[in-house]
Amino acid sequence: MKTIAGFILFLGLIACSGKSTNGKTLLVDVRPEGIWRQGHARTGVNIPLPELEKHKQELLQYDTVIFVCESGESAQQATSYMNAQKEHETVFKNGISWTRYAN
């Protein structure tokens, strides 16, 4: 329980460190759906990394999007990809490894 509370606090700190126009923050787990179903943050959504392009416009509706995955590598790829998109105000951040905080 302490770990989950720390995880939520950590996400809140990340979300608050960027700009905010409407306060909308989204946690996106970019792991494959089958792995995501085995355990994930209750407040997050699953968008596997290969499907990120299809959801680009949805993600741009948020002030802050935090990506997480198993090791942090795919989350970093998602962050880099979305930050490379031109003319948007959304803050995309690389979150943390899900498995590191799940236990």
Automatic annotation (TrEMBL):
Domain Rhodanese: 21-100
Classification via Gene3D superfamilies: Rhodanese-like domain (3.40.250.10)
CDD domains per the UniProt record, alphabetical: RHOD
Superkingdom of the organism of origin: Bacteria
Name this polypeptide is given: Rhodanese-like domain-containing protein
Organism lineage string: Bacteria, Pseudomonadati, Bacteroidota, Flavobacteriia, Flavobacteriales
